[in-house]
Design a protein that fits this description.
Length: about 270
């Protein structure tokens, strides 16, 4: 029954759909059931050192890598042919831009991981999910940088087209999509596998904050209304003024005029 079973079929043919389903429905469930956990949970108040440089380098690098993979994998091959963009040129662009962004993300992620593991206060206030997702991201960046070395050995773009075809075939629900990546190097396969692991972990970690980009802040009319007392007029309400607390040995004189105004520090109504 399982004589012709292939691990490649399980990982690259079945796993992508399971990963997408878990990421989608678990994210919706978390947003509906625990909306107050939908945040980045910054540890800046505990220790600012290493956070600024580490966070900036990591976020800039990872955002470039994310959108670079998104555009690179899901751009139709026929569109490249129509625009006259050679596969080799696209491969070089991926190596140069991806390598630079990967180096920035690696340095930033290393600083953030070191900070979270070494500082006792941050370590005690970190969950296993916080440390785990950061460690997996660090490993994914390292593996991704390793694939660049392999890519430099074949700059004709053939492997790139294979990965593009696999990605687009998966999204097109083609059952034989997994056959596109059967013969690639194991490091590429591990890179893809780690990507799917990160996607599974996504709805259960702080990574969900990436879906809450505050774009509406750009056009909101205002956040807090502040009223000033400058230029305010005295309004007669007809209410009885409050009595002052009498000083020792003195008794407060109750006001009889409802329009009277009590002078500050006195128990006598104003004439």
């Amino acid at each position: 029954m399982f004589g012709n079973f292939s691990l490649d079929f399980l990982i690259f043919g079945i796993m992508p759909y399971a990963v997408l389903a878990i990421a989608l429905f678990a994210s919706i469930a978390r947003y509906e059931r625990d909306p107050f956990t939908w945040k980045s949970s910054s540890s800046q108040l505990l220790r600012r050192k290493q956070l600024i440089w580490g966070s900036v380098l990591f976020h800039v690098g990872i955002i470039v890598l994310f959108f670079g993979h998104l555009v690179g994998l899901f751009t139709p091959v026929w569109l490249l042919d129509t625009l006259g963009i050679s596969y080799g040129f696209k491969q070089w662009m991926a190596v140069i831009i991806g390598g630079t962004a990967g180096a920035a993300a690696f340095v930033g992620c290393s600083m953030l991981l070191h900070r979270r593991l070494v500082d006792p206060r941050i370590r005690n206030n970190s969950s296993w999910a916080d440390i785990g997702i950061l460690a997996v991201l660090w490993l994914q960046i390292v593996v991704g940088m390793g694939t660049i070395v392999l890519t430099l050995q074949h700059m004709d773009g053939a492997k790139m087209v294979q990965f593009m075809t696999w990605s687009q075939s998966v999204m097109g629900l083609q059952i034989n999509a997994w056959t596109e990546v059967v013969d690639v190097h194991w490091l590429y396969k591990f890179h893809i596998f780690l990507g799917m692991v990160i996607l599974i972990m996504f709805p259960f970690t702080r990574l969900v904050h990436m879906l809450s980009v505050p774009i509406r802040y750009l056009w909101r009319p205002g956040y807090q209304i502040v009223r000033t007392r400058q230029g305010a007029r005295t309004v007669r309400t007809g209410l009885m003024p409050m009595r002052d607390v009498p000083a020792p040995g003195r008794s407060a004189v109750p006001p009889t005029d409802p329009d009277a105004v009590i002078r500050p520090g006195r128990g006598q109504p104003a004439e």
